[in-house]
Amino acid sequence: MLLHHVFGLFTHPDSEWAEIRREHEKPLRLYVAYVLALAAIGPICAYISTAHFGWTVGADRLIKLSPVSALQLSVLTYLAILVGVFALGYAVNWMAKTYGAQEEPDASNGVALAAYSCTPLFLAGFALLYPVPWFNALVFLAAAIYGAYLMYDGLPIVMDIPKERAIMYAGALLTVALVILVTTRVGSVILWSYGFGPEFVGD
């Protein structure tokens, strides 16, 4: 089971990346056994907290989302995460030749690198059970920083390139990740205009 890599990526990432390269899992199996499960953490926790716990604004006024609205947004977020990880994985593979790595027809190494590098962000989804904006922002910032480190650390191992090339490669991939993030935000605004926006409920 691929979920055993979660602990290793936090305790001994170098040897874990080497094992991931040896496994060379196909993208479909990686998605089914790893990404589908971990990517659901954030949306599920966000649904629970926004529909049932709520958060306070101003003078202790409790704000919630309606269950239908929270479910819609959680499902859309889940789909965006799945597409984002897949797109980042293919970007890793597409840029491979530029940085001296081997481009693969099925992008196995690229998707693996993207999926496992996103592990801290997947796990940060648990923080959404405590719907306090500043706390969530700090947790996700720390997760993003460690995820970027994991990508930089894993690039030379998984893609089999010299370590000195990993800095430029990782920088290019982080730029792609930011483009994907901005695209999903723009997509959210468009979907909101078609009736998928949040429906707030105050207590």
From TrEMBL:
Keywords: Membrane, Transmembrane, Transmembrane helix. It comes from the Bacteria. The chain crosses the membrane at residues 31-55, 75-95, 107-128, 134-155, 167-194. Residues 7-182 form the Yip1 domain. GO terms for cellular component: membrane. It is a multi-pass membrane protein. It is found in: Membrane. InterPro entries: Yip1_dom (IPR006977). The keyword Ribonucleoprotein does not apply. This is Yip1 domain-containing protein. The lineage of its organism: Bacteria, Pseudomonadati, Pseudomonadota, Gammaproteobacteria, Pseudomonadales.
